[in-house]
Amino acid sequence: MAMNKIRVRLRGFDIELVDQAAKSIVAAVKKTNAKFSGPIPLPTKINKFTVLRAVNVNIKSREQFEMRTHKRLIDIEPVEGTLESLMKLELAAGVDVDIKNM
Question: Is the pTM of this model over 0.85?
Fold first, then answer.
């Protein structure tokens, strides 16, 4: 069964962990001599939250927090053994990995 393309999406809050995961995936793909493109940086999603510092007193005093979600995309044209090498990788716990067949 030949697959056309594998798309790997990486998401995480810490950009260093996401980049390390992308480098380890690229290294595993290079060992199998498969063609790939990426890691392509996708736009960072920023969620901002505004919280009142003190209730009933100083109602105009507010504090803002934000969460940044960093994303990377890697497209792989697999050869024999590529999928097995991807499944054997151990990545950091702070990185979400989605693998899709295209």
Answer: no
